[in-house]
Design goal:
The protein is of the alpha/beta class. Helix content is about 35%, strand content about 15%. The longest helix has 22 residues.
Length: about 1300
C-alpha cells in the first residue's frame, strides 16, 4: 500500500509558464465503504492528484483530477481497492483552452464585453467602471477593500432611487470567493447587465425595489492566478503560511476564504493544514478579503434593511440554506427555516422550467457535505440577514469547474429566473414590509406567523430534527439519515457499541446488543464519517440498510385522497389515531350485534385507549377469549395496521377458516395501546418509541432532551421489572419508568387482562411489534433449559413453528421462533411476559412483524397487505394446532393414541405436519366424529388399505419367483431378491460378489452384492460406496430402488451411470432387516421394526407390537437422545441398549471393515415416504448443522441432485437435516455413519410419495421412482467429483470453502 501510494508522488519539473493540464483526466469515484473513504483520503496529499470534491464520504460522488504520469498508478489503486471509477474529462487542458481561447483572440475592449467567453479580473473591473460611466445616476463603483496582494475588491451599487426611498431594502450578491469557479463572475456580470437593461417585468421589479451591491470577484488574487499560473487554483494568495506539501509547495500559498468567516469557524468541513484546499487560516477573519466583506456588510446594515445575501459558487446545481455545519439542532436556530426552504424550493422549480436543469435544495449536510466558516452562514448567523443562500451553479460534474463558455448564457438565464421567483416567494412571505424584523422584535416566530403561501412540512425535503420549543413547530425530519447494520463478534465490540449508544450521538434501532446479533443504528448525515471511523476503530464494518430515512417516512405518509369517512378506511396507507378510532366507532354502528367499542383506560395525555370486542356467539362465561395488543411502541406503524386488518377480516371474510377463528372465540382487539406516542409519530417525530410522560424530563444532550419525555411501556410491566434489557435512564429508549406499572397505559392493560379471567376461558394473548420477523415465546429473560420455566413451552414452540411454516407458504417470508433471549435479546418488564407469568394466560406470543431491516420501522405501505395476509395465515394455523393440543377441550392426540385399532403411520407427531393415521373400519365412524368435535380436519387419504396391499402383492402371486422373472413392475419378497442377487453373482462372476454381512435375529442372511469392474486394478486405496435399503420393513420401495440401482450399474449404457458404476467398488444391501421384511409378506404388511420378541410386553392396541426394535433408532450415535422411545410397544422403540440388535452390529462392523479396504466416500440409506434428501445430523438445525464439517458440500450436492431428479418426472424433493424438514431423531444408521465412522458423503433418502399412498406405493410407480433416483445419484456424484472428494487434498479445501458458503443456506433452511 505504502509503495503504491509512493508511486503517486513522483516529482514533475516545475514551470514558470502557466501550468499545463494537458492529458490530465477527471474521474468520478464513489466510495462504498469506510475503507474506501480512508483509502481515498490517503490520496488527497499525493502529487498529481487533485480532489475537485471537498469532502470524501460514503456513497457520495468524488471527482478527482489525475496527472498523466499518475493515471496508471491511480487506476491500479482503484482496482486494488475495488472502487469503481469513471472518466468524465479526458483532457482538462482542452477544456481550459476552450475557455481561454475567446479571451485571447477577442479584442480586450470594454465595448465588446459579453457572455460568450470568460473574462479576467482586469476586464471585469474595466467593464464595471464603464457601467458607472454609462449609468451615472444608477451605478456606482464600490471598492470594499483590498486583497493580500493589494488588488481592489470591486463591485457596483445599483440604485434606481438614489435620491431616497421610503424604506431602503438592500441586497448583496457575492461572487468568486473560490478562484477557479469562473461561472460565478460570469453569472454575476450577467445579472448586473440584466438589472440595467432587461425589460422583463419581474427583473425590473427586483432590480428597482432594492439597492443592490454586487461583487463579481471577491477573491481577485486567486482569480487572477487562475488566468496566469494555475487554472485550478481555489484559495486566495496568502504566502504567509508556506510550507512543503507533497502535492507541491505552492499548495500552501493560500487560504480558503469560504472557511475563514467567524461563524462556527473550524467546526467541520475545514482544515488546519495549509496544504489543504479547505485550509481555514490561522484564525477567523484572518484574511483581508474576509474582513472586507464583513465590514462592508455591517456598514450596509446601518443604511437600511439588508434582506438578501447570496453567494455564487460552482458546481453541483444546488441552492443551499443556512446552516451548513449540522442538519438538526443548528437548523433549528434558523427559526424561519421552513420559509427559507420554501423560497429555495420555488426557485429551483422555476429554474428548471427554462432549460430543464434540476437543482436540489436544502442544508449543505443533507445535499452536499457539512462545512463551517462560510460567508453565507455568517451572513445569517452573525449578521442576521434574513434571506441568505448559496448557489452551486452548473453543472453536475461533466465539466465541473471548466464549464464551457457556451453554457454561460443558459446558466445565467435560468439563474435569473430562480432569483425572480425566490423574490416573489419572499414578498409573499412578508420579508419586504419589515414584517420580518418587526415580528422578531415582537417575539413572533414563523410558528405563529401564517404564510400566505401554504406550507406542507411533510413535503419538505430538509431535516428538522430535535427543534427547540421556540423554533418552528414542524415534524422532525430525517432527510439523508441512514440506517446501518453491524454484527459485533466479540464482547469488546459489544462494550464499545454500548459506550457509543450512551453518547446519544446515534439512534440504536436495536434495543439490546449481543455477540453475533444484528444491530441497526440510525446515523445523521453529518455524523456518517465519524460513525464509520468509530466502528472501524473497533474492527466493525457497517452495512448500509437505509440510505435516506425521510424518503421512507414520506412514502408511509403518502395516501390517496378519499376523505375521512369509515368507508374509506383501507390498508394501502397508514392511518393516524383519529382515523383508527373513527373507524372502530363506525364498526360498532355497522355491526351492532357483534362489535362493542371498549375503552380500557386513558393515556398520560388522557387519550382513550380504545379497542373493540368481537363476539358472534354471546356465550358469556363459557366463551374462549383472545386478546390482541398493538401499537405499544409508537413508531411501529405496521402493528396497528395489522390489528385493524384482523378486525376487518373477522367481520367481513368469507374464508371458512377465518370464519371459524373469528367465531370460535370472543376477541378483544386494541390497535393502539400507546395513543400519545402514536400521535406524536405523526405530529412531531416519526421515530418516537415511548409514551409521552414528561415527568422524568432531563438533559439528554447532545442528541435531544425530548428523549427523556417518555417511558417504554413494554418495560413497565411488573414481571421481573428492571431485571435485564431495560434502563433507568430517562434518555434511553428502554427507560422502564420509576416503578412497575407507573404508567397509566400499562395499568390499563394489566387491569383489563385480569378482568377477562372472569369472563370465560382466556386462551390467547398476542402482541404485535416490529421489526425482525420473529415469534417470541415467554419468557424473554430465559434460554436453554430455563425455557422450561414456562410449563407449556413445548406446545408454544410447536404452535409457533407450525404457524410460521404456514406463513412462509404465502410469500416465502421466513420467521424464526424462540424466546427473546435466544433469538433477539434478553429483556424484562414486557407486557406478554407479564401476561404469561402473572396473568397465567396459556397461549402467549409476541410477533416481531416485517421486515428484517431493509425498511425497519418504516415498512412501505405497499407491504401492509402482504404482511397482513401472511399473519392471518399464521394465526389460523396456530389456532388449529392449539385446538389439536386440547387448549379448547382435552388433549386430542394423546386420546387418539390410546384407542385400539388406530395406528400412526407418522413416527413423530409435530405441530404443523401432516399426521397419517390408519383406522380400522370398526372405529372409523367414532374416529371421524371425535376429530371433528375437537376441531381436527380428518381428511381421508386411503379408503381401503388392503386394496393397495393386494395391488402390491398381486403380480408376485401370478408370476414365478425364479431369478429370471425379476423385474420392477412388481415388488419382490426376500427369497426372490436374494435369489436374484445369487443369479447376478453367477452371471457376472468377475464383477459381482454376493456378500453376507451377518444374520438377523431369526437367523436370516443380511445379503447384498459387491460390484467391482476392476478387481485387479484398484490400487491400494480404492473408492468405495455403500447403499443400505429395507431397514424399515414396510418401506418396500426401498429394496425395489436398490435392486434397480444394482441392475443399472451392471447393464446401463449411459456414460454417467457407467462412470459412477465403474469408478467405485459398490457394496449394496437391498434388505438390511430381513426378518421384518419377510414379516410384511407373511403376517403384517405394515410392520416396521425387526422381529425380536425379547422385550415382549402387553400393548394397548395389540401385544405383537412389542416384538421388535426400530433398527434405525438402535445405532450408537446419540442413542435415545430424541425421537426415539423406550417403550417396546412404540414403533420407534430403540432397544434396551445401543447396537443391541444383530442387524445393527452387522452394518456397523461391515462398514468399519470397509474403511480398512479403501476410501469409503458414500453411504446412502433409502427409506419412504416423504420425498426428502436428509443430511446428517438428524438432531441438528439452524447453526448447529455446522456440527457436520462439510455441511455446505452436502447441501450443495443434495440440492443439485434434487433439481436433476425433478427434471425427469417433476417430482419435488426437499433437502435438509431431519430436524429442519421432518422431525428430530437420533440413533439412526446414517447419522452413526457420519458421526462415528466419519464417512464424507452420507445421506438418507425418503422416497416417494408425499402420503397419498404412503408405504403402499403402487407398483406402477416403482420404475418412475427408480429412474428419477438414478438421475439424482448420477448428478450428486458429478457434483461430488467437481468439489473434489475423489482427491482427498482438494476435497478438504473445497469442503472448507463450501462449508462457509453453506452458512448462507441456514436462514433458508429455517
Amino acid at each position: 500500500m505504502k509503495f503504491e501510494i509512493l508511486l503517486l508522488l513522483i516529482a514533475v519539473s516545475a514551470t514558470t509558464a502557466q501550468k499545463s493540464f494537458k492529458n490530465y483526466k477527471v474521474y468520478n469515484v464513489v466510495p462504498e465503504t469506510e475503507e474506501h473513504v480512508l483509502s481515498l483520503v490517503g490520496l488527497q496529499d499525493s502529487k498529481g492528484i487533485d480532489f475537485w470534491t471537498d469532502l470524501v464520504d460514503v456513497g457520495q460522488v468524488v471527482r478527482i483530477m489525475v496527472a498523466p504520469e499518475e493515471q496508471d498508478s491511480f487506476l491500479d489503486l482503484m482496482h486494488k481497492w475495488k472502487i469503481s471509477s469513471e472518466m468524465t474529462i479526458e483532457d482538462v487542458q482542452k477544456l481550459i483552452d476552450d475557455q481561454m481561447r475567446p479571451a485571447e483572440k477577442g479584442a480586450r475592449n470594454v465595448e465588446t464585453f459579453g457572455w460568450n467567453r470568460y473574462y479576467n479580473v482586469t476586464e471585469i473591473y474595466d467593464w464595471l467602471d464603464k457601467l458607472e460611466y454609462d449609468y451615472p445616476n444608477i451605478v456606482t463603483v464600490v471598492t470594499i477593500g483590498r486583497s493580500n496582494e493589494g488588488k481592489e475588491i470591486k463591485g457596483v451599487k445599483i440604485d434606481y432611487k438614489p435620491e431616497g426611498r421610503e424604506k431602503t431594502l438592500i441586497g448583496m450578491y457575492e461572487g468568486t470567493i473560490h478562484a477557479r469557479e469562473w461561472i460565478s463572475p460570469a453569472s454575476l456580470t450577467w445579472i448586473i447587465n440584466e438589472f440595467l437593461t432587461s425589460s422583463d417585468r419581474e427583473v425590473r421589479f427586483l432590480a428597482e425595489h432594492f439597492v443592490w451591491y454586487i461583487f463579481p470577484v471577491t477573491n481577485p488574487d486567486g482569480y487572477d492566478y487562475t488566468f496566469t499560473e494555475n487554472r485550478m487554483w481555489r484559495k486566495n494568495r496568502n504566502t504567509a503560511y508556506a510550507r512543503s506539501c507533497e502535492v507541491g509547495d505552492d499548495m500552501s500559498n493560500g487560504i480558503d476564504l469560504n472557511r475563514n468567516f467567524g461563524f462556527l469557524w473550524m467546526l467541520t468541513g475545514a482544515s488546519s493544514d495549509p496544504c489543504s484546499n479547505t485550509f481555514a487560516g490561522p484564525s477567523a477573519y484572518s484574511e483581508p478579503e474576509t474582513r472586507a466583506i464583513v465590514n462592508f456588510v455591517n456598514t450596509l446594515k446601518t443604511q437600511g434593511e439588508l434582506v438578501y445575501y447570496i453567494a455564487f459558487h460552482s458546481f453541483t446545481q444546488l441552492i443551499l440554506v443556512p446552516y451548513s455545519h449540522v442538519p438538526n439542532n443548528a437548523i433549528g436556530q434558523t427559526e424561519d427555516f421552513l420559509s427559507l426552504f420554501e423560497i429555495a424550493g420555488r426557485g429551483a422549480a422555476r429554474l428548471e422550467k427554462r432549460h430543464g436543469t434540476q437543482y436540489r435544495y436544502g442544508a449543505s449536510p443533507n445535499v452536499m457535505y457539512a462545512m463551517s466558516g462560510t460567508s453565507f452562514d455568517w451572513a445569517r448567523g452573525e449578521a442576521k440577514i434574513p434571506l441568505s443562500f448559496l448557489f452551486e451553479l452548473r453543472d453536475m460534474g461533466e465539466y465541473g469547474f471548466l464549464l464551457p463558455a457556451d453554457q454561460i448564457v443558459p446558466t445565467s438565464e435560468e439563474l435569473m429566473d430562480a432569483l425572480c421567483e425566490m423574490d416573489i416567494a419572499a414578498r409573499e412571505l412578508g420579508y419586504y414590509s419589515g414584517k420580518y424584523l418587526r415580528s422578531k422584535q415582537a417575539g413572533e416566530t414563523s410558528e405563529n406567523r401564517r404564510s400566505p403561501f401554504p406550507i406542507d412540512p411533510l413535503s419538505l425535503r430538509g431535516v428538522m430534527n430535535a427543534l427547540p420549543a421556540s423554533c418552528v413547530k414542524a415534524q422532525i425530519r430525517y432527510d439523508e439519515y441512514k440506517v446501518f447494520s453491524v454484527v459485533p463478534e466479540t464482547e469488546d465490540q459489544i462494550q464499545a457499541l454500548k459506550d457509543l449508544s450512551q453518547e446519544l450521538l446515534y439512534e440504536f434501532w436495536t434495543d439490546f446488543l449481543d455477540v453475533g446479533k444484528n444491530v441497526k443504528i440510525m446515523v445523521a448525515p453529518n455524523r456518517v464519517k465519524d460513525f464509520y471511523s468509530s466502528l472501524n476503530s473497533i474492527g466493525l464494518r457497517p452495512d448500509l440498510n437505509i440510505n435516506n430515512v425521510q424518503q421512507l417516512i414520506d412514502a408511509q405518509l403518502k395516501r390517496p385522497y378519499n376523505g375521512r369517512n369509515t368507508n374509506s378506511f383501507g390498508w394501502n396507507h397508514y392511518h393516524n389515531l383519529e382515523e383508527i378510532y373513527d373507524w372502530l366507532d363506525g364498526l360498532a354502528d355497522t355491526y351492532p350485534d357483534v362489535v362493542t367499542v371498549v375503552v380500557m383506560g386513558h393515556s398520560n395525555a388522557q387519550r382513550e385507549i380504545k379497542g373493540v370486542i368481537i363476539d358472534f356467539n354471546k356465550k358469556g362465561n363459557e366463551s374462549a377469549i383472545a386478546m390482541i395488543e398493538g401499537g405499544i411502541h409508537a413508531r411501529e406503524w405496521i402493528s396497528p395496521a395489522t390489528v385493524t386488518w384482523l378486525i376487518n377480516e373477522f367481520l367481513t371474510s368469507n374464508d371458512p377458516e377465518i370464519r371459524f377463528l373469528a367465531e370460535a372465540l370472543v376477541w378483544h382487539l386494541f390497535p393502539v395501546t400507546n395513543p400519545d406516542g402514536y400521535v406524536y409519530t405523526f405530529s412531531d417525530n416519526r421515530m418516537w418509541r415511548k409514551n409521552r410522560n414528561e415527568n422524568y424530563s432531563t438533559t439528554c444532550n447532545p442528541w435531544n432532551d425530548d428523549l427523556s419525555n417518555g417511558v417504554d411501556l413494554n418495560r413497565n410491566f411488573g414481571f421481573h421489572w428492571m431485571g435485564v434489557g431495560a434502563s433507568s435512564n430517562p434518555c434511553a429508549e428502554t427507560f422502564a419508568g420509576g416503578e412497575p406499572f407507573s404508567e397509566p397505559e400499562a395499568q390499563a392493560i394489566s387491569e383489563y387482562v385480569t378482568s377477562l379471567h372472569d369472563k370465560g376461558k382466556f386462551v390467547y394473548y398476542i402482541t404485535f411489534h416490529s421489526f425482525s420477523q420473529m415469534v417470541l415465546i415467554p419468557y424473554s429473560h430465559v434460554s436453554g433449559i430455563d425455557v422450561l420455566q414456562v410449563e407449556n413451552y413445548g406446545n408454544l414452540f410447536e404452535i409457533a413453528i407450525r404457524g410460521m411454516d404456514k406463513l412462509k407458504e404465502r410469500f416465502g417470508t421466513e420467521y424464526i421462533v424462540g424466546t427473546s433471549q435466544e433469538i433477539l435479546y434478553a429483556t424484562t418488564g414486557s407486557s406478554f411476559d407479564w401476561v404469561k407469568g402473572v396473568a397465567e394466560v396459556p397461549i402467549v406470543y409476541l410477533f416481531e412483524l416485517r421486515d428484517n431491516g431493509t425498511y425497519g420501522f418504516l415498512l412501505p405501505p405497499e407491504l401492509i397487505i402482504p404482511n397482513n395476509l401472511e399473519i392471518m395465515d399464521a394465526l389460523i394455523e396456530m389456532d388449529k394446532v392449539t385446538r389439536q393440543l386440547g387448549y379448547y377441550s382435552g388433549s386430542i392426540l394423546m386420546d387418539l393414541q390410546k384407542q385400539g385399532d388406530v395406528e400412526f403411520w407418522t413416527d413423530i407427531v409435530l405441530l404443523g405436519e401432516d399426521v397419517r393415521i390408519m383406522v380400522s373400519p370398526e372405529v372409523e365412524e367414532d374416529f371421524v366424529l371425535y376429530t371433528k368435535a375437537v376441531g381436527l380436519n380428518a381428511e381421508l387419504r386411503i379408503p381401503n388399505v388392503q386394496e393397495l396391499i393386494d395391488a402390491q402383492l398381486r403380480p408376485a402371486s401370478i408370476q414365478g419367483r425364479n431369478s429370471g422373472s425379476f423385474n420392477w413392475t412388481q415388488y419382490h419378497d426376500l427369497a426372490a431378491i436374494h435369489a436374484w442377487l445369487d443369479e447376478l453373482g453367477e452371471t457376472y462372476p468377475n464383477i459381482v460378489t454376493v456378500l453376507v454381512i451377518g444374520q438377523s435375529n431369526e437367523g436370516r442372511d443380511i445379503k447384498g452384492v459387491k460390484i467391482d469392474f476392476r478387481p485387479e486394478n484398484r490400487g491400494e486405496n480404492p473408492l468405495i460406496g455403500m447403499l443400505e435399503g429395507g431397514i424399515h420393513a414396510r418401506e418396500w420401495i426401498s429394496p425395489a430402488t436398490l435392486t434397480w440401482v444394482i441392475n443399472e450399474f451392471l447393464t446401463s449404457t449411459d456414460p454417467d451411470v457407467r462412470f459412477m458404476a465403474e469408478t467405485f467398488v459398490w457394496h449394496i444391501f437391498p434388505v438390511t432387516n430381513p426378518d421384518g421384511y419377510e414379516y410384511t409378506y407373511t403376517d403384517d404388511r405394515m410392520w416396521r421394526k425387526n422381529r425380536n420378541p425379547v422385550n415382549f410386553t402387553t400393548c394397548s392396541n395389540r401385544d405383537d407390537l412389542s416384538n421388535g426394535i426400530d433398527l434405525n433408532r438402535n445405532f450408537d450415535f446419540r442413542w435415545m437422545g430424541t425421537g426415539a422411545s423406550a417403550n417396546p410397544c412404540d414403533q420407534t422403540f430403540a432397544g434396551p441398549s445401543a447396537a443391541s440388535e444383530p442387524e445393527t452390529k452387522a452394518i456397523t462392523e461391515y462398514l468399519l471393515s470397509l474403511k480398512t479396504q479403501g476410501n469409503v466416500i458414500y453411504y446412502i440409506a433409502f427409506h419412504s415416504f416423504s420425498q426428502m434428501i436428509l443430511i446428517p445430523y438428524s438432531h441438528a438445525s439452524g447453526y448447529d448443522v455446522l456440527e457436520v464439517g462439510n455441511y455446505g458440500d452436502l447441501f450443495e450436492i443434495a440440492i443439485r441432485g434434487a433439481e436433476k431428479l425433478k427434471a425427469r418426472h417433476g417430482t419435488e424433493y426437499r433437502v435438509g437435516t431431519s430436524a429442519e424438514i421432518l422431525y428430530v431423531v437420533s440413533g439412526s444408521s446414517f447419522d452413526w455413519v457420519k458421526g462415528v465412522a466419519d464417512i464424507p458423503i452420507v445421506y438418507l433418502f425418503e422416497l416417494r410419495d408425499l402420503g397419498y399412498e404412503g408405504f403402499l406405493l403402487s407398483p406402477e410407480f416403482i420404475i418412475p421412482n427408480n429412474e428419477e433416483v438414478m438421475d439424482c445419484l448420477v448428478e450428486m456424484d458429478r457434483t461430488t467429483r467437481t468439489i473434489g472428494y475423489y482427491s482427498s487434498a482438494s476435497a478438504l479445501i473445497n469442503s472448507f470453502v463450501l462449508m462457509i458458503a453453506g452458512i448462507t443456506f441456514i436462514g433458508f433452511m429455517k
